[in-house]
Specification:
The chain is mainly α. It has one domain. The chain is 65% helix and 0% strand. It contains 3 helices and no strands. Helix 1 packs antiparallel against helix 2. The mean pLDDT is 85.
């Protein structure tokens, strides 16, 4: 899974399944979405730095930068 796919999936959960989450879980979901967005932006801005893949993240995502 790529970072973009993860962001899209988590955003879908936030927008469509919010009634299943309690407040701390919803906040954790929002925090995770924002953290992945910032990580994606950081990788795009720093193409000369080697990054390790996150658990479940595809190597193609890392090698694309």
């Amino acid at each position: 899974m790529t970072l973009e796919e993860a962001i899209q999936n988590l955003t879908y959960m936030k927008e469509h399944l919010y009634s299943y989450f309690n407040r701390p879980q919803f906040q954790a979901l929002e925090l995770g979405i924002e953290a992945l967005k910032r990580l994606k932006e950081h990788r795009e801005d720093h193409i000369d730095i080697t990054f390790r893949a996150l658990p479940g993240e595809t190597e193609e995502e890392i090698n694309a930068h």
